[in-house]
Amino acid sequence: MTLLDRFAAVARPAPIAMTPGTSRRLWPRLLAHGGFRTGLVLALALLILAALGPFIAPYEPNWPDYAATLKPPGAAHWLGTDATGRDVLSRLLDGAHRSIGAAALVLGTIFAIGLVIGTIAGLAGGIVDTVLMRLVDVMMTLPGLVLAFAIIGILGPGFLNLLLALVIADWAYYARLSRALTLSARQRPDVVAARMAGIGWPRILFGHILPGVALQLAVVATLGMGGMIAAISGFSFLGLGVQPPYAEWGAMLAESRFYFPIAPWLLLAPAVTIFASVMASNLIGNGLRDVLEPKGRS
């Protein structure tokens, strides 16, 4: 998602009214969308690999075998071996939960923080809204990539430090968007009618406002899944994420770049999985956007 797309989403939110039958009507429309189906199948395959990878890996992913260094793909090693004789397929499977699982964890944390802060600001208004949004404004003025590098520079390289840095660098955008969607949802006819009927804000929040805001925020998070996987892989490629000898797709790319002329299979395997992850998240996110906001399609 480009910066222009983000500002457009904040400036012109289109809140969704979630009723008990909305989800039942939504799934058939999503499954009828070709791009969503393709992305869903690809995503499920990657999730299965991430969940079962460490258990179905044919070899121990971190044990070197110097008698089998840089072996090309074959019957014994389907994707070949690296410079220390480790099986590439085993490392690819073992690294899947660090790339995909870590991205899901970061986005889930960002989603929760942004949803809570944005909804509170949008409903409370007044001084609460002012204080929270000034904090969001401060965070959004800092370039996310630079802020993440700064946090890692303070805390030091490491996988947990990288995940914390990505959460801190990106939560403010979700809070801003959640607030904008909440403010728009407050003006919907069903919410106004509920207020006129004397229904309290807690019931209105959980029954009318929060489900639709969460759904639209989930679309944005889904679109950001591929970018988050790429970001985690990029930081690991630079040596700031997963540390040796543990496998992660970006770290595998970094290790393979020195051997590409003689062992190209080392580069192709993690590159293809990263590309497939990004494509799956984009297809699912675009499908959700097309179904939920059909008038907004270009």
Automatic annotation (TrEMBL):
Compartments, as annotated in UniProt: Cell membrane
Bilayer-spanning residue ranges:
34-57, 100-124, 213-238, 258-280
Sorted alphabetically, which keywords does the UniProt record give? Answer: Cell membrane, Membrane, Peptide transport, Protein transport, Transmembrane, Transmembrane helix, Transport
Q: Which Gene3D superfamilies match?
A: MetI-like
Q: Which Pfam families match?
A: BPD_transp_1 (PF00528), OppC_N (PF12911)
Molecular function GO labels = dipeptide transmembrane transporter activity
Q: Single GO cellular component annotation? A: plasma membrane
Please verify whether the record's keywords include Transmembrane: yes
Q: What is this protein called?
A: Nickel transport system permease protein NikC
Instruction: Specify the taxonomic lineage.
Output: Bacteria, Pseudomonadati, Pseudomonadota, Alphaproteobacteria, Hyphomicrobiales
